[in-house]
Amino acid sequence: MQQYFVQGKLNIDERFVFNKEQAHHIKNVLRMKQGSQVRVVDTCEQPYLTAIEFADDQVAGLVLEALPLNASRVKTTLIMGLIKGDKWDYLLQKACECGAYEIQPMISSRCVVKAKEEKADKKLMRWNKIALEACEQCKRAHQTPVLASADFDQVLGVQADLKLIAYEDADLKACNLAAVFKEHPDISSIAVMIGPEGGFSLEEVAKAEAFGFVRVSLGTAIFRAETAALFALNAISYHYDLSGEVK
Fold first, then answer.
1. Would you say 106 and 193 are in contact if contact means Cβ atoms under 8 Å apart?
2. What CATH number does residue 25 fall under?
3. Where would I find the Ribosomal RNA small subunit methyltransferase E PUA-like domain in this sequence (predicted)?
4. What is the pLDDT of residues 98-145, one digit of tens each?
5. Do 10 and 16 form a contact (C-beta atoms < 8 A)?
């Protein structure tokens, strides 16, 4: 069932109007009929079952019933080093599907990609459109925002109950990820920092630790940057949402 995010708070038996882009998608792409049903999520992150109604040149929805929430128990901020082209777009899409609550693009010392001021606004709009479509596709009630790119030093002050930095463990001082989760059973937010293609320097890792980040290993394999991010998000989701009980 198709999902759309709509503005405002909805109520049962209430009618609302889809925006122009959504109306075009409903009429001309999906070719829905009068009474076709879609899932909509309001600004309170409540999903509803809705019936399509066509009136004049507008596409409206009639709210039929509230649907169960599917929110994660832990809100995860992904702080991600910028990576090249298509890999970045792929990462944004899959990170939303894997439960990232928000995504913070980061420029660290080994980033090959550098943010260009003159194109920053357009890029951010495109990134957020990718995230929006991914959240709609996977039926998440939370619309994951992609924040403006920030330098490494700027993201160190992020607020979270648990802050992690994934490192390839060149100096064998990283903690086991599962062990760290077991030590933090009752948390509501996590920030996980993943480096770009070249990873982090030891100086960056040390600086992050000084700001409360825990250095963690993702295992013995050396992942691509985008794979490491998705691995970490899935590990968080499994432990805090799918394991049945917090261990």
1. yes
2. 2.40.240.20
3. 19-46
4. 999 999 999 998 888 776 665 788 999 999 999 999 999 999 999 999
5. yes
